[in-house]
Specification:
Two copies of one chain form a homodimer.
Chain A (H helix, E strand, L loop, with lengths): L6 H25 L5 E5 L6 E4 L4 E4 L3 E5 L3 H23 L5 H10 L7 H15 L14 E4 L2 E4 L9 E3 L7 E3 L1 H4 L2 E5 L3 E5 L2 H9 L2 H4 L2 E5 L6 H14 L3 E4 L4 H12 L16 E4 L2 H6 L5 E2 L2 H11 L9 H11 L1 E2 L12 H16 L1
Parallel strand pairs in A: 10-11, 10-12, 12-13
Antiparallel strand pairs in A: 1-4, 2-3, 5-8, 5-11, 6-7, 6-9, 14-15
Helix pairs in contact in A: 1-2, 2-4, 3-4
C-alpha cells in the first residue's frame, strides 16, 4: 500500500474537518442548553445566480434556518445528522455507497425516511452545507460512463492504492466508477478530450483510431453524463490543460447533455466546479442536418415541448445555443450522431471531425 | 500483429463461407434464367419449440419462401442481399457496426428502408439463414455490460491482436464491447461467475472483495443483458467450465433478466447457444423478502400485468420460477438487491452470499 498523500486524500480530509465542525456546532448548542440550529443554503430556482468568475449557476445568499426548537424541523434535523454521521463512517472506513444504498442503510438503522426521495434530498442538503459534492464523501452514482485513451492513472482507493493502469490498454473502455474518479493522472500523451453521448459512436471513434489520429482521450457518457464523469472531465481540463469537445445527438436531449457539461445543471447549482465552462459543443448541430444532408426525423410533440423549455432557459440565450434552437424551429427535424454513417462508417472520424475541429479552432 | 488463428477467426471464416454460399445460390439461379429464391426459417411464436438437447427454445421446421418471382417479395429480397453484402464487408475489413449504424449506411447507399425496424428485421432474417448471431458478422449492441475478475484475456481484434490484459487490473470494471467479446481466455484463477443486474451491487461486490473471497468473476449486465454479454457468459461456462450464479431484483423485470440468461429470449429463438441452461438464479427471490425481512415496495399495476404474462410463459412452469411467482401473489410486494443494505453495506457479500451459495450447492 502506497503511503503517498494523494489529492483525493486531502479532499476527504477537508470533508472530515467540515463534518467535525458541523457536529461540534450541534454539540456545543446542546451543552449550553440551547436548541441546536443550522443554516442551510436555499436550493430553490429563485436562489440561483450566475457566477461570472466560475461561469456557472450557483446558489445565491439566501439561507433557511433549521432548528430543533421548531417541532416540525426536528425530524429533518435528525435525519440530516444521521446522513452526516454515515458520510463520516464511509470516509473513515474507505467504503463507498450510492443514493439508494444509503436509503436502505438508513431504513435498517431505524431512520424514518418516507422514501428514497427524502433521503436523496437530505444528502443534497449535506452537499450544500459542506460545499462538497457527495462523491467527496463517497456516495457515487450507479450509472457508469467509460473512458479510453493515452492516459496512465494511479489508483488511490483501498486495495489498489499506488497501482497504475494505462487507459489505452482496453479498446472497449474502462468503466468510470469510484476507483477511476479518485485516481491521479500520472502520464498523458493526449492533447484533447472527445466526450461522446452514444456508445456506438464511442466504439466508432476507437475503431477508426480517433484517439491516435487526434491525440484524444475518448469518454462515453452513456446519455446524460453521471456527475462523477462530469467531475473527471473537469479534472482532465484543469489538471492536464486539455480542451474538451462534446459530441451529442441533434435533438433537445442531446443539446442539453452538452449544455449541462458546459454550464452545469440546475439540480447541481449547489455544487461548484463539476462543469467545464471552456468545453465546446462540437456537434452534431441541428444546422448540420442541412449542411451535411443527414438522414433526420420529424421532431415529436415531446421534443417540441422540450425545445420550448430550453428556449426560456438562461443557459440558452447565446450562440451557438440560440442559433441552433432557431434552426430546430426552421427545419422541425432532429438527427443522431450515427447519421453520418450514411457516408460510410469512416466518415465521422475521417471527414466530419477534422472539418469541425478546424472550424472551431479558427474562431 | 499475432499470426495465431483464434477461435473467433474460425467463426468469421465459417460465416464468410455461408455468406458466399448464399450469394452463389442467387447467382446460379440468375445464370440459369430462374427467379432467385431463398428459404427463410419462420420466426413466429407458433414456430418456437423447446429443444431438449440444447435446453432452450429454438425455431421449428417451418420455413417461408422468399422469391424474386413474387413482386411483393422483391423489395425485402434485395434488402436482404444488401445486408448480406454489408456483413461480408464488415468481416473482410475487420470493422464493426451496430443495428442503427447499419440502417444509416443503408440509407446512404440508397437502400429503401422505411425505418430502422425494417433493417433490424432483415438483420435478424440473415441471422436465421446463416445460423449465426449478428455479433459473428460484426454487428454489435450499443449497450455495454462490464466485467471484473481474475481472468487474463488475449485480444483478437485489429490493432490489439495478441495483446493481453488482466481483468482484475481495474476495479470499476472493463466495458464488454467487440474487443472483449471476441477475446480468447488465457488464464483464469476464478472458479465461478456472479452475474449482477445492478451497478451499485456490482460495485459493492468489488468493494467487499467478493471476487477474492469466492474466487468469482463479476459481471454487471446493466439491466437486461446485452446479447454479446450473454454470449460471453456462455463462453465462460463452456470454455472454462465455470458455474454461473445470477443476481437480480425481486421484481418481474429482474426475474425475467435471470430467466432470459438461463432459457434464452423469444426474440432470439433463431439464435442458438447464447443462453446458459445450467446457470442458477441465486436471488434476490420474492421469498427472500419475508425470509430476510427486506424493505419492499407494493407491486404496481404494471408489475402485476407483467407477472401475469410471465405466469403464462412456458419458461416459468417449473421451480424456482413457479414457486417464486406464487410468492409474488401471496405478498404482492417487490424488493431490490440493494435492500440487503438494511443490515449494513457488508451484509450481502458477507452473510447473504455464503448462505445462498451453500443452499444452492446442497440441492
Amino acid at each position: 500500500m502506497s503511503k503517498q498523500i494523494y489529492a483525493s486524500d486531502k479532499i476527504k480530509q477537508a470533508v472530515l474537518e467540515r463534518l467535525k465542525k458541523l457536529g461540534e456546532r450541534v454539540v456545543s448548542d446542546l451543552e449550553r442548553g440551547a436548541f441546536p440550529r443550522l443554516e442551510i443554503p436555499a436550493r430553490t430556482t429563485s436562489n440561483i445566480v450566475y457566477d461570472e468568475r466560475l461561469r456557472q449557476y450557483v446558489l445565491g445568499s439566501r439561507r433557511m434556518e433549521r432548528t430543533a426548537r421548531n417541532v416540525r424541523h426536528l425530524r429533518p434535523f435528525a435525519q440530516l445528522l444521521w446522513i452526516a454521521a454515515f458520510a463520516k463512517q464511509l470516509i473513515q472506513r474507505g467504503k463507498t455507497s450510492t443514493l439508494r444504498d444509503t436509503y436502505y442503510v438508513a431504513i435498517g438503522e431505524g431512520i424514518d425516511f418516507e422514501d428514497q426521495d427524502e433521503s436523496d434530498e437530505l444528502i443534497m442538503q449535506l452537499e450544500s452545507i459542506l460545499d462538497f459534492p457527495r462523491e467527496d464523501f463517497n456516495i457515487f452514482p450507479e450509472e457508469r460512463a467509460s473512458i479510453y485513451g493515452d492516459l496512465v492513472i494511479e489508483y488511490t482507493v483501498p486495495g489498489f492504492r499506488g497501482k497504475r493502469i494505462d487507459l489505452s490498454a482496453h479498446p472497449d473502455g474502462f468503466a468510470i466508477g469510484p476507483a477511476l474518479t479518485t485516481a491521479e493522472f500520472v502520464k498523458c500523451g493526449a492533447e484533447q478530450v472527445f466526450v461522446i453521448e452514444k456508445g456506438a459512436v464511442f466504439a466508432r471513434f476507437v475503431e477508426e483510431g480517433a484517439d491516435k489520429k487526434y491525440k484524444a482521450i475518448l469518454i462515453h457518457t452513456a446519455g446524460q453524463s453521471p456527475r462523477n464523469c462530469r467531475k473527471l472531465i473537469r479534472r482532465l481540463h484543469d489538471e492536464l490543460n486539455l480542451p474538451i469537445y462534446v459530441f451529442t445527438d441533434a435533438d433537445p436531449w442531446g443539446v442539453h447533455i452538452a449544455s449541462v457539461l458546459i454550464h452545469g445543471s440546475a439540480l447541481s447549482a449547489h455544487i461548484k466546479e463539476i462543469n467545464v465552462p471552456d468545453a465546446v459543443w462540437a456537434g452534431v448541430w441541428p444546422s448540420d442536418i442541412r449542411r451535411y444532408k443527414l438522414p433526420s426525423m420529424k421532431l415529436s410533440e415531446r421534443d417540441i415541448k422540450r425545445i420550448q423549455e430550453l428556449e426560456n432557459d438562461p443557459r440558452y440565450q447565446n450562440d451557438p445555443w440560440r442559433r441552433e434552437i432557431k434552426e430546430f424551429w426552421k427545419i422541425k427535424r432532429k438527427a443522431e450522431l450515427e447519421a453520418f454513417s450514411r457516408y460510410g462508417l469512416e466518415f465521422i472520424v475521417e471527414e466530419f471531425l477534422p472539418e469541425r475541429l478546424a472550424e472551431l479552432q479558427k474562431r
